[in-house]
Structures are given as structure tokens and as C-alpha cells.
Amino acid sequence: MHVVVIYSKYENLDEDGHHVNPHGAEQMRETVLGVTEALEKAGHTVTRVEASVSLLEDIRAVDNPDVIFNLSAGITNKRHQANFVGMLEMLNIPLVGSGLSTHIMGLHKEVTKIILREAGIPTARSQVFQDSGEPIRDDFVFPVIVKPEHEGSSVGVDESSYVEDKETLRRVVHDKMQTYKGAILAEEYLPGREFTIGVLGNQEPEVLPIKEYVFDEKAGSTRFLTVQAKANDTVTQVCPAELDDALQSELQDLARRAFLALRCRGFARIDFRLDANGRPHVLELNTLPGLQPNYSDFPNVAQVGGYDYDRLIRHLVELAVQERRYA
Fold it and tell me: Which residues is 83 bridged to in the sheet?
């Protein structure tokens, strides 16, 4: 098959882009190389197209593409991720991963939470702020975590995100609004263990082995996953996580249900954290997980689940074709 790989610019980026997502350019470069190599090993013809405002014209200029493998979260920033997928869907070519509606729901964290609650899937109590002066809900239990409502890759999550009182909450919401130019989400902090779970498939998805992020504050680690902790790889990761049978089964069931509730296709990654009573809650869904070889969470947990990198990339293409066949 002829596969078009869409990627974001990763050379000659401005300083602001590097500050917001320190690993972004390197991750994109390594992912493009890894995906291209895996596809070519499988016998596919690969054409790479950089994401731009002329994207549709550029793809139409490609000779008979069979599948689009999108690695880009948007032309200028991740907020455009859903818009970008909407553009690609108009080409009516099988697309690796989820469609427009799923990316809209997944990128907007409060929308995700509303859908999860309707599906009976636990998620932390939260509030979206359009203005830092808005009344704070009376039933908030502090501390809370504050972050942009529609960003990904832990963008906007730093040490200031951990807030212990209303006065500080207003200040942090105001500061993050000034920086990220959008709505801000505050959600109750869950003090328990943190996990991420990859889900692979379409209508009958497979739940991959569970990975745990282990935070050791005595060793200088943060108590939650910040953008800088990700960039510096300062959090210990364990896969498969050490879990009793009941908790493992519950996490797997919730991951599968969350995947289906948001109508994910192909692949997605769901983050969980336990509350003070040890019950799991969904933090958020990543509808376009990173695929950097030997680094990103999704290919790492897939490897533990029996999918080496080449097999994973081949399978994602197969799922895209399968989904189009039965759509």
C-alpha cells in the first residue's frame, strides 16, 4: 500500500515552541523516522508530507495514497488537533487513529469528564474557568491540580499546578490563562498511585499491559507528572505494574469502557490515578498517543504486550483499513 505519513515541522522551531514542549521536536523527528522505517520494512511505499495550511493540496498531489498515517497534532499547536483530523477526513482516505468527534471530546478535558460521568466511569470533581474571577464551587476539596483545559503532553502542568487554597487557585488560574490563552481546568488532586493504559483496536479493543508512574519525592521526584518531569525523565516507570487481580481487572475494564465511550479507533492511551480510598479515576484520554520508538508510553506498553514496534505500526495500518471497510 501507499501510506502518506503526516508530520509536524521539527526543524528551526522558535524558542516559545521549545519552552512549551521541550521534547516535542526530537520526539517528532524520531517518530517520523521510526514509523517510516517500519512501514517500508512491511513493504509499503511511504510519502512524507509536512503539516501546513496547504495540506489537502499536498496530499492530493501524492500518487494514489491508500492510507494516511497522521503523526501531527496540528499545524501551529495541539489545540488544532481536531481541526486537523477534520481536514484529513474530508479526503475520504482510511486514516490511522480516531476521527474528528473523538479528538474534540478527548482534547477538551471537561467534555471528556462529562462523557465519562454519563458512562458511569469515575473521574475527579472539576471546574472549568473562563475567567479567574468566577465563583469557585463550594464542594471543592483541596488540594487541586490546575492545567489548561485543552492541551496535551502535560503542557501547562508544572509545580504551580498543585494548589491548596482558593486564593492561590485564583492566582494560578489567572497566570495560566495569560500564558496559554484559553480556558483553565481545576480538578481535585488524587493522592494515590498513577497508571497509564494503552488500548489497541476498534469496536473490540485490546487492553495492553498497565504501566505505573512511581513518584518518589525523597529522591527529588514530583508528586505528579509535570511537563518538565516528562522532559527530564525523572519519574520511574514500571510495566507491567504490580497490581492485585481485583485492581488490575477494574483498571482494564474502565480503560476499555472509556475507549468505547469516546468512540476511539485504532489506539488511545488512558491515564488513571487512585483516590485516597484506592479507587481508580480517569485523569484524561490521549487520542493521539506518541509513537516515538523506545521512548513513548504507547509503543513501550505494546512491546510488553507482544507487539514489537514494527508489528505495532503494521497493525495500526491494518486497523485503519478495517475500520473503513466496516464503517
Answer: none
User: Number of folded domains in the chain?
Assistant: 3
Task: Give the pTM.
Answer: 0.91
Reduced to 3 states (helix: H, G, I; strand: E, B; else coil), residue 311 is helix
In sign, the C-alpha dihedral spanning 229, 231, 232, 237 is positive
In this predicted model, what pLDDT tens digit does every residue of 135-194 receive, in sequence order?
999 999 999 999 999 877 678 888 889 999 999 999 999 999 999 889 999 999 999 999
Asked, for residue 50, whether it belongs to a domain, the answer is yes
Nearest to 158 by CA among 108, 228, 92: 228
Distance CA 217, CA 115 (A): 34
From residue 76, alpha-carbon distances to 25, 72, 239, 306, 327 in Å are 13, 10, 33, 35, 31
C-alpha–C-alpha distance, residues 3 and 36, integer Å: 9
Residue 162's contacts (CB-CB under 8 Å, 6 or more residues apart) are 143, 145, 189, 223, 224
| Overall residue count recorded for the chain in this entry | 327
Q: Is residue 27 part of a domain?
A: yes
CB within 8 A of 37, min separation 6: which ones? none
291-296's contacts with Cβ under 8 Å and 24+ in sequence apart are: 291/31, 291/34, 291/35, 291/71, 292/27, 292/30, 292/31, 292/34, 293/30, 293/31, 293/34, 295/27, 295/30, 296/27, 296/31
Strands 2-7 and 67-70 come out as parallel
Going by C-alpha positions, the residue among 288, 324, 308, 270 that lies closest to residue 7 is: 288
By the 8 A CB rule, do 87 and 55 touch?
yes
pLDDT band at 225 (very low <50, low <70, confident <90, very high): confident
Task: For residue 172, give the CATH number of its domain.
Answer: 3.30.1490.20
DSSP code of residue 145: E
Range of the domain at 229: 191-287
In-domain check, residue 273: yes
Stretch (H or E) spanning 195? strand 194-201
